[in-house]
Amino acid sequence: MDLSIFFAGTAGSVPSARRGLPASLIRRGADRILIDCGEGTQRQLLRSVGLADITDVFLTHLHTDHWLGLPGMLKSFDLRDRDRPLTIHGPPGTRRLLEGLRPIWGGTGYEVTIVEPAAMEPIARDGYTISAIPVRHRGTAYGYALVEDPRPGRFDAALAERLGVPPGPAFGALQRGEVVNGVDPEQVIGPERPGRKIVLSGDTRPCETVAIAAHQADLLVHEATFTSEDADRARKTGHSTAAEAAALARDAEVALLALTHLSTRYAGRELRDEARAIFPRSEVPRDFDAIEIPFPEKGAPELVRWSGAPPPAPAVPAEAARP
């Protein structure tokens, strides 16, 4: 099962020429899960991987840079004749906010459900859960942890044959938990293996809840709005420095740290270098970059730089171009 995260917007608070407002798309199999939807998100997706039939939207908090792109996206889905239901999850106040904006995005031909999950409440999906993590920001704010269900242990086919089990249907019976030719499944199937885990901090000061949720995660996506030179401003505004995010990642023993929500005062390299001095497995994705997360036995999480070009703008008919 493929698992990756695509970064549609990596700026913090204010967009720049190179970075859009916060939006990350988790892709797991056919599921498309959008975390935050800053202004311009649908345009960012259209310019890159396309505006897919998103299955769920999770808002980390209700500051406008994290949700202002949502009303337009909801309307676009309606104009594209979407019929698949969509669930929007967010902290307390999300329902009142979006219902208050109904006159803007109007009715839809598909069902929109707004859910305000309790902190740490797991939301079950096919093969994984997503839980809201309370974080330290201005007002109520969440991070999110996607945790896959445990996987069956590795099947030792060579050992099964040596014990007298012939290849073919008998192997399948063993993997289903049946005893075959006196061979118990526990003899040839290893211990259960954990699924993969992605944790996204949202906007936050470094906090214990994120550290606990991110323990041995395959990927931690943590905000790093400032460098340590602006540590006072980070504290006053409820944000983190790159060094603080790196220290948390190191202590949580994550496999890879991705820094996002960058202030426009930085190009990115300064934040990456500060983080790597503490936690070498740190990256600063650009817009349209992705991180692929294979199963541990197949390799480590890896940043994949965007190499595609935006699709050309549609041609304007000659008559439409005339004044």
TrEMBL record:
PANTHER family: ZINC PHOSPHODIESTERASE ELAC PROTEIN 1 (PTHR46018). Residues 302-323 are annotated as: Disordered. Its EC number is 3.1.26.11. This is Ribonuclease Z. Zn(2+) 2 binds at residues 65-66, 203, 261. Its cofactor is Zn(2+). The active site is at residue 65. It comes from the Bacteria. Residues 23-82, 193-261 form the Metallo-beta-lactamase domain. The keyword Hydrolase applies. Binds 2 Zn(2+) ions. GO terms for molecular function: 3'-tRNA processing endoribonuclease activity; zinc ion binding. Belongs to the RNase Z family. Keywords: Endonuclease, Hydrolase, Metal-binding, Nuclease, tRNA processing, Zinc. It catalyses: Endonucleolytic cleavage of RNA, removing extra 3' nucleotides from tRNA precursor, generating 3' termini of tRNAs. A 3'-hydroxy group is left at the tRNA terminus and a 5'-phosphoryl group is left at the trailer molecule. Zinc phosphodiesterase, which displays some tRNA 3'-processing endonuclease activity. Probably involved in tRNA maturation, by removing a 3'-trailer from precursor tRNA. Zn(2+) 1 binds at residues 61, 63, 137, 203. The lineage of its organism: Bacteria, Bacillati, Actinomycetota, Thermoleophilia, Solirubrobacterales. InterPro entries: Metallo-B-lactamas (IPR001279), RibonucZ/Hydroxyglut_hydro (IPR036866), RNase_Z/BN (IPR013471). CDD domains: RNaseZ_ZiPD-like_MBL-fold. Homodimer. The keyword Zinc applies.
